[in-house]
Each structure stands twice: as structure tokens, then as C-alpha cells.
């Protein structure tokens, strides 16, 4: 088999394109494949998709392709320009790679696959490209994916913040609860940050939102109430953040009691922190026996723990009235336990009760948001941090945006052999 035929078959080159010559440079570890097309062809106009005659050819383009036998492979081609009767002279669409990308679609797909599972430096090394080129491909992929994304607001929204660096530097994240994708990333965690997302939609689109899960952060509450119709019935405070108030109160009671016991030389509560904070069903067998012994003693923290465990049952209700009735019973117990941290936690929950009981209707939490936060934290560690906040947002969209990142192949071939038109000569009747 000829070398040109071998590379044509290897690279999937089909008529009317063919390989003219192949140059191998072992010193530079590269192979250059030069393409041309048959003379008797027509090319498709990129505007009207009609086949037209070839006007001339553009300058030679070079596309980086997948490696062949550990050699960096480059495709060289001069793309035709057509002379369309309706649109004039136009450059045809490239079958090999996107405009000004310098790489083939196959190579770009390969690099994006690698970048999904490792950091940029590693992806660049594995694909034998520079860091800047690798990042440019990712940046262009995100831009491509965002342009393809339909303009819509999810029915079930989650709102959370994510720290980008030390010193309380945050980004606001909006994500789709149903599809598990990040929809919006914005600087800071103020009211204006979330409002910037809502402003993209009209009042009819915003009215289609059914629930907004968030923590009890006043700027997010204010932004949602300002834009989402009937937001009071749709805001759902996250179960995890609510329980955190109660868990922190239990820990505060433990600390106070531990200090009091230690003054009298009693170290009963030493090393028991996570026994009181961990859910009982998650304790290991050896610690369960220890915990049972502690609960038999007359400890304040044991009563605080019982109050904490009791409120966990509130999330099982499916009716708002039943949930309010349960909370009223729990609130009386918590506020009459004579433990200041538990009383403060109960008062905090009562102030936000209206958007706690909405959980009975929607049954949504920010658990998905915490999962996305963990994934983003992993991305940040792999990259050893981000100094550029724009790069940070691009990385979030790339890994968590659920975008269509890949270049699309052309639906129709851009060249064809000119159809044969028979000439009728010397016809007599």
C-alpha cells in the first residue's frame, strides 16, 4: 500500500479529498500530511447550503491531529472559496476543524475528554500541547457550550456560596436541582449577585420557578423575594444548615459542661465530642456501647442531644400544618430545657419557620449543592488554586455546567464531484 493511501485510510480522508504527500520528521517527532481535492468539483455555500462552482482557494491551513505512531500529526489543506450567485464569494466551512482553532475536531474531542479527568497541566502533557493552548481549547469549549445552552430557568433552583480563597472571598452558585448542573456563577455573595441571575429572565419565566433551596442568608432571601413571584411559598431553607444550628448548640452545651466537670477533676466528656454530634445510626459498634453508658448519666449534653435527635423527625412530614404542630411541641421543649445555646437555636429556627415548613411541600435540600461544592473543591485542589477568578468560573462551568462542549461534525459534506450532464449532439427527428 502506498504511504499516501495508508494515511488517507488512517485519517479517514474520503473523496473528493485525497492525500498528496506525507513528510516525516523524526528529529522534530512530527508527520505532515498534505491534502488536495479533485479538480472537477463543486463546493457548498456556507450561507444557503447550495453547491456552487469553486472561485479560488484560501491560504494553506494547518490542523493538529491525533498522534500517529507517537508522532505529532499535522494536516495541511487549502480550503476552496465558492462563487455563489446569491451570496457572492464565500469561504466554505471546514470539515477538519473549527474556524481559527488550529486543531482537528477529533483532536479537540480527545483533549476535552482528558481534561475532564485531570488538571490542565496533566492534560497538556498527555496530549503534547502547551498549557496556554490547552486552556484556550477549554475556554472555547465552555463558550461554545454556553452559546448552545437553551435560555431557561430551572423549576427547582438551589443557591449556595463557594469560597474561592482565604479571607472570606466568595462566589455565588446557582444550580439546577433536577439535572445537577451549575447554571450561574457570580462574584461575591451579596443581594446583587443573585439578582444578576434573575435579571436574565422575564416575569413569566420567573413565575415558573417552583422552589428555591438556600441557607438562611439574608441577601439571597431579599433577592429571591424581589424577583420570584410568591417567593414566600417557594423559598426552602436547607435542612443541613438548619440542623447545623441545633448541632452547634449541642456542642456548645458539651463544651460548657466539660469545663465545669474538669474543674472538679471529672473527665467524663473527654474525647466524646463526635458521639454527641454524629447521628446515632452512624456510630461504630465499639463506640455505641460507650455512648449508651454516657446516656445513662445525668448529663446536660445528653438532654441537648435528645432535643437534637427529636427535631430530625420533623423532615418526614408532608403537610405544612403537621410540620408546624410538631415544631411547636419541639420548640416548647427546647426553650424550657434551661440550656442557653439550645434556647438561642430554637429562637433562630422560629424566626425562619415559614420557610422551614415549606420543605413539607417541596422536599428539596441543598445536598446537591454541597456535592457540587465538594467537586469544585477537588477541581481547585487539582489546579493548586486559581488566581484568576474568570478562570475559576470557566473551570466550574467546564466540569459542572452540563454543557455540550464538543465541536459538532458537519451534517453534510462540503465538496462533491461535479454531476455529469450528458450533452445531446446531432439529434435528428
Search tags:
429 residues; Nucleotidyltransferase, domain 5; 3 domains; five-stranded mixed sheet; four-stranded mixed sheet; 42% helix; 20% strand
Provide a descriptive summary of the structure in words:
By secondary structure, this protein is of the alpha+beta class. It is 42% helix and 20% strand. The protein has helices spanning 3-11, 105-115, 120-126, 131-148, 191-198, 203-207, 218-227, 239-263, 273-277, 285-296, 300-311, 320-335, 340-351, 359-362, 367-382, 389-400, and strands at 17-25, 30-37, 41-44, 51-52, 54-57, 61-68, 71-77, 80-84, 88-91, 156-165, 169-176, 181-187, 211-214, 235-237, 415-417. The strands form 4 sheets. The chain has a 5-stranded mixed beta sheet with strand order 12-11-10-13-14, sandwiched between helices. Strands 1-2-7-6 form a 4-stranded mixed beta sheet.
Compute the separation of the termini in Å: 53 Å
What is the spatial order of strands in the main beta sheet? 12-11-10-13-14
Low-confidence stretches: none
Shape: elongated
Helix percentage range: 40-55%
The number of distinct structural domains comes to: 3
A few lines on this structure:
With 429 residues, this protein is α+β, with helices and mostly antiparallel strands. The chain has 16 helices and 15 strands. The longest helix has 25 residues, at 239-263.
Amino acid at each position: 500500500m502506498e504511504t499516501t493511501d495508508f494515511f488517507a485510510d488512517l485519517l479517514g480522508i474520503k473523496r473528493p479529498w485525497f492525500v498528496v504527500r506525507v513528510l516525516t520528521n523524526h528529529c522534530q517527532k512530527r508527520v505532515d500530511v498534505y491534502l488536495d481535492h479533485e479538480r472537477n468539483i463543486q463546493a457548498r455555500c456556507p450561507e444557503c447550503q447550495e453547491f456552487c462552482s469553486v472561485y479560488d482557494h484560501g491560504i494553506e491551513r494547518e490542523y493538529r491531529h491525533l498522534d500517529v505512531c507517537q508522532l505529532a500529526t499535522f494536516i495541511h489543506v487549502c480550503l476552496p472559496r465558492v462563487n455563489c450567485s446569491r451570496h457572492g464569494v464565500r469561504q466554505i466551512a471546514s470539515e477538519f476543524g473549527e474556524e481559527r482553532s488550529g486543531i482537528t475536531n477529533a483532536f479537540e474531542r480527545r483533549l476535552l475528554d482528558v481534561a475532564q479527568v485531570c488538571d490542565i497541566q496533566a492534560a497538556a502533557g498527555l496530549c503534547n500541547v502547551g498549557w496556554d493552548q490547552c486552556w484556550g481549547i477549554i475556554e472555547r469549549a465552555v463558550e461554545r457550550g454556553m452559546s448552545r445552552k437553551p435560555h431557561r430557568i430551572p423549576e427547582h433552583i438551589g443557591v449556595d456560596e463557594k469560597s474561592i480563597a482565604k479571607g472570606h472571598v466568595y462566589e455565588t452558585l446557582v444550580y439546577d436541582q433536577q439535572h445537577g448542573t451549575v447554571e450561574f456563577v457570580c462574584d461575591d455573595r451579596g443581594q446583587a449577585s443573585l439578582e444578576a441571575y434573575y435579571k436574565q429572565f422575564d416575569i413569566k419565566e420567573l413565575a415558573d420557578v417552583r422552589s428555591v433551596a438556600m441557607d438562611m442568608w439574608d441577601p439571597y432571601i431579599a433577592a429571591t423575594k424581589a424577583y420570584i413571584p410568591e417567593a414566600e411559598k417557594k423559598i426552602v431553607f436547607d435542612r443541613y444548615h438548619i440542623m447545623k444550628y441545633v448541632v452547634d448548640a449541642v456542642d456548645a452545651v458539651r463544651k460548657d459542661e466539660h469545663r465545669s466537670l474538669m474543674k472538679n477533676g471529672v473527665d467524663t466528656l473527654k474525647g466524646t465530642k463526635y458521639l454527641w454530634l454524629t447521628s446515632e445510626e452512624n456510630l461504630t459498634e465499639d463506640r455505641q456501647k460507650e455512648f449508651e453508658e454516657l446516656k445513662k448519666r445525668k448529663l446536660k449534653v445528653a438532654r441537648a442531644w435528645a432535643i437534637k435527635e427529636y427535631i430530625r423527625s420533623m423532615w418526614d412530614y408532608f403537610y405544612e400544618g403537621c410540620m408546624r404542630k410538631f415544631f411547636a411541641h419541639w420548640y416548647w421543649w427546647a426553650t424550657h430545657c434551661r440550656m442557653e445555646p439550645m434556647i438561642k437555636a430554637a429562637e433562630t429556627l422560629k424566626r425562619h419557620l415559614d420557610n422551614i415548613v415549606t420543605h413539607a411541600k417541596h422536599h428539596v435540600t441543598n445536598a446537591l449543592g454541597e456535592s457540587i461544592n465538594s467537586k469544585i473543591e477537588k477541581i481547585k485542589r487539582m489546579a493548586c488554586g486559581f488566581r484568576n477568578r474568570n478562570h475559576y468560573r470557566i473551570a466550574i462551568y467546564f466540569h459542572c455546567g452540563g454543557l455540550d462542549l464538543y465541536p459538532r461534525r458537519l451534517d453534510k459534506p462540503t465538496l462533491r464531484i461535479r454531476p455529469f450532464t450528458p450533452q445531446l449532439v446531432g439529434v435528428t427527428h
